[in-house]
Amino acid sequence: MGGALELERGSGRGIGAARLRGAAVTVRLRQGGERLQPDCRRPRRSLKNLLQETGVAPWLRERLPLIYHGEELVWVPGVGVDCAYQAQRGEAAFRPAWLPND
User: Fold this and answer.
1) Where are the beta strands (DSSP E) in 1-71?
2) How far apart are CA 47 and CA 68, in angstroms?
3) Which residues constitute the domain of residue 46?
């Protein structure tokens, strides 16, 4: 599965730009065992469960580009940004979008 990962600059929504300092930002494929907390009011959950709940087909789950900061998972297409990396109102941010090939 190919596609394009785009980052749009903005503010107040997406990944807080200041939170990405201090470690490399990389894009990787799923390895298994990843966890994410897209809702700050709920506990961190397995990426497997989050992808199942969002209806991502099993054969596509291994092909999604995941954004990491160092070893921390930051963003997953269709799921969202981890709570620790979410931009606050008025804060400079990046809004990722995964555009798969049809």
Assistant:
1) 3-11, 15-16, 25-28, 35-36, 45-46, 66-69
2) 14
3) 9-100
Q: Is 2 contained in some domain?
A: no
- Cβ proximity of 68 and 28 under 8 Å: yes
Amino acid symbol at 62? E
Helix (H) or strand (E) holding 60: helix 58-61
Integer-rounded Cα Rg, in Å, for the chain is: 13
Q: What is the pLDDT along the chain (102 residues), one digit of tens a residue?
A: 589 999 999 999 999 999 999 999 999 999 999 999 999 999 999 999 999 999 998 988 999 999 999 999 999 999 999 999 999 999 999 999 999 886
Report how many domains make up the chain. 1
Q: What span, in angstroms and rounded, lies between the C-alpha atoms of 91 and 79? A: 21
Distance CA 9, CA 17 (A): 9
Model's pTM, two decimal places?
A: 0.93
